[in-house]
Write a structure and sequence with these properties.
about 350 residues, five-stranded mixed sheet, four-stranded mixed sheet, 16 helices, about 45% helix, about 15% strand
Length: about 350
């Protein structure tokens, strides 16, 4: 299953497919589309803050595997995101990442082959070159590669999108309500045609316009996914039995659209209020013991939360003698500053710390 910028595609839509057409949200697909902004030609000031963050080289420095895989704007970052993806109306980023990390045997290998063929010029040794490149990625095994990809996608989502997810979810749900109202008042044809100027319904087919023409048949369901990061439509498909197609389209802008960082309450809902409190109290490097005493938590509980925030790129840890000091990264400073946190300053850490 792949996801690419669409051409002229006619998706045959019989009564059964229309009956199973639905809307859904996906943090993972939002991340997929946002990653395309890494190579986007638009000036940064025209982009929402999560897309601007996605262009930051410091973010990609923390994603070594994804940086090696997706080296060109021609590459679809979403090929890895949609393997048996549980797209629902109540999205769960951890569930989506779990499905990615536990992809069936052969799926990651197949996706890598398809992707890396784009980098190799045609020739008698092209297949050999692609095989070697894929083997390099799978040196630790396919399952290990899938888990590393999922871990880096998780890091990307938390660095770029998690601070704004309440804003993003609010806008995408508003878009779904808007399209549903059109469909209820004017019919499903009008609802589909309202998604984007390139989308229409005619002659028992959903059409997505562009330069070429293709007819696709046999889908059992069709899922519509609004995205605040998309500036065009993307069509994903899976021809295996029981699978379907999904269309990612740009969510409509509204006059009350918010792109500022969320409030403390919203941010707490994303990070968890315990982690937010720990993060906010780390204007200077702190040890697990110090934080446990300050917040009246057990050291094991604090250690767990610090480890998760470290994995998410919000903390740096520095050994010093028999202690390990944790302090906030630049991403954490920006996140807290965006919600109005006062006195968010970097303080020199223990000896030997950069």
């Amino acid at each position: 299953m792949g996801l690419t910028g669409v051409q002229m595609i006619h998706v045959s839509a019989n009564a059964g497919l229309l009956a199973d057409t639905r809307f859904a949200l996906s943090p993972l697909l939002e991340a997929a589309v946002t990653m395309h902004h890494r190579h986007a030609p638009q000036p940064p000031h025209h982009l929402p803050p999560w897309a601007r963050t996605a262009r930051d080289p410091a973010v990609w420095d923390r994603l070594p595997l994804l940086s090696q895989i997706f080296t060109s704007p021609r590459f679809s970052t979403t090929d890895f995101f949609c393997m048996d993806l549980p797209i629902t109306a109540h999205p769960d980023i951890d569930a989506e990442l779990h499905h990615m990390a536990t992809a069936p045997a052969g799926r990651i290998t197949k996706q890598l082959y398809g992707l890396l063929r784009l980098t190799v010029p045609p020739g008698p040794r092209a297949d050999e070159v692609v095989h070697r490149a894929v083997d390099d990625f799978l040196v630790s095994g396919e399952r290990s590669c899938a888990q590393r990809i999922a871990e880096e996608v998780s890091r990307f989502w938390r660095l770029c999108l998690a601070p704004y997810w309440p804003v993003i979810e609010e806008r995408t749900r508003a878009d779904i309500s808007h399209r549903a109202a059109i469909s209820a008042n004017e019919g499903l044809r009008a609802g589909l045609s309202s998604l984007h100027p390139a989308v229409s319904y005619a002659h028992a087919a959903i059409r997505i316009d562009s330069a070429a023409e293709t007819v696709v048949e046999g889908y059992e369901r069709f899922t519509l996914v609004p995205s605040v990061s998309a500036n065009r439509c993307f069509l994903g498909s899976d021809h295996r039995p029981g699978r379907g197609a999904y269309l990612i389209y740009p969510a409509r802008e509204t006059g009350s659209q918010r792109t500022h960082a969320p409030s403390q309450e919203s941010l707490g809902n994303v990070l968890g209020h315990t982690r937010l409190a720990l993060l906010a109290s780390m204007a200077r490097p702190r040890t697990t013991t110090e934080l446990a005493e300050q917040h009246r938590l057990s050291p094991s509980t604090v250690s767990y939360h610090l480890s998760r925030m470290y994995e998410a790129g919000l903390l740096v840890r520095t050994p010093d003698g028999g202690n390990v000091f944790y302090h906030r990264t630049g991403e954490a400073e920006r996140l807290l500053a965006g919600r109005g946190e006062q006195n968010v300053t970097r303080v020199p850490g223990p000896a030997g710390q950069l």
